[in-house]
Amino acid sequence: MASLLLALAVGCTGLYAGFMLIFRTGIMPALARLTDAEFVTVMRRINEAVPRGVFLVVFLGVIVFPVAAFFVPGDGRTDTQKWLVLGGLVCAALNHAVTLGGNIPLNNALAASESTGEQPAAVRAAFEKRWNGFHGIRTSLIVVAFGLLTAAAVL
């Protein structure tokens, strides 16, 4: 059971890390080329579409599976493996803290600005640089989490 939980932790974390990395290296650079009005509209629609179904399962699995893998006794798991799982869990939890404390409030402000009539240039200026900064931090954290959990699985 411990091996299955660790495999699920690696799988969810890898999916999530890949999503975050593609967003950072492909999607946001592409959106940066849009006009202010286009950027604001597209980001609003992305923020409405992403937090659903499969994404939420993966988002929660990034925490639930490493917790379970850490606490369920593993046959022959070394102390090093336990520390690697714990390190991966801490990085994933910090990723979620950045998401919940940084990116989601910015997403909510972006959504709320739709009804205020605020100019797209001002909305983008208040959003893009800060959101990208938080996203860079959380992407780094989840990539490290994936590396630590993968190391635990292959040792």
Notes on the protein architecture:
It is a single chain. With 155 residues, the chain is an all-alpha fold. 86% of the residues lie in helices and 0% in strands. It has helices at 2-32, 36-49, 53-71, 79-112, 120-154. The longest helix is centred in the C-terminal third of the chain and has 35 residues, at 120-154. The model has no long low-confidence stretch (mean pLDDT 97).
Q: Could you give the count of β-strands?
A: 0
Quickly count the helices: 5
Mean of pLDDT: 97
Ends apart, CA distance between termini = 17 Å
> Order of helices and strands, N to C?
HHHHH
The largest β sheet comes out as: none
β-strand amount: under 5%
Give the C-alpha Rg: 18 Å
**Segments where pLDDT lies below 50 for 5+ residues?**
none
- How would you describe the shape? elongated
Q: Helix content range of the residues, please?
A: over 70%
Structural class: mainly alpha
Summarize the structure.
It is built from five helices and no strands.
